[in-house]
Design goal:
The C terminus is likely disordered. It is built from four helices and seven strands. It is α+β, with helices and mostly antiparallel strands and about 170 residues long. The chain has a seven-stranded mixed beta sheet. GO terms for molecular function: acyltransferase activity, transferring groups other than amino-acyl groups.
């Protein structure tokens, strides 16, 4: 799939598409995760507000642009790039879409002069934890929901020397 994949930043008119991709990707967890994933409560407005003025979203599409396959949000927090709502539609999973999104996020972080990228990953989704570990992410904090029904790892990847503006 990687050669047949195009990544692009979301334009202002793409927020409904970003929302649709997030809902489609997270729908399978409805009624499974306790508490329910916050992704399923997102709206176009809440997604736009999350990244407004400090980040954006990427959209993964087929090379010819005929189908949207995934998305991920990103924004700067202190001195790192936070990536959230990494979403790949079920039909495109296992084809390198998530990996391509995350590699592009690393490029965005380096280009912004940031040396670290972070994600939050629920422990009740061990395949997702393993995915990030394969990409070189490490857990650095273990956080519990207040009712202790589930927890998540804060994971990070140190990117080494960030690009300077002269690079």
């Amino acid at each position: 799939m990687e050669g047949n994949l195009k990544l692009r930043p979301a334009a202002e008119t793409d927020w409904p598409l970003v929302h649709r991709l997030i809902i489609e990707a997270f729908r399978e967890y409805e009624g499974v995760l306790v508490p329910q994933s916050g992704a399923l409560r997102e709206t176009v407005a809440s997604i736009r507000e999350t990244v407004s003025g400090r980040g954006g979203a990427l959209i993964a599409e087929t090379a010819d642009g005929s189908a949207a396959l995934g998305t991920a949000l990103h924004y700067v927090v202190e001195k790192h790039l936070y990536v959230g709502r990494v979403s790949v539609v079920p039909a495109a999973r296992g084809q390198g879409v998530g990996k391509a999104l995350m590699l592009e996020m690393e490029r965005i972080a380096r280009e912004a002069g940031l040396a670290e990228i972070r994600v939050s990953v629920r422990l009740s989704l061990p395949d997702n934890v393993a995915f990030y570990e394969r990409l070189g992410y490490e857990a650095f904090d273990h956080v519990f929901y207040p009712d202790r029904t589930d927890s998540w790892y804060e994971m990070r990847k140190r990117l080494g020397a960030a690009l300077s503006e002269s690079d």
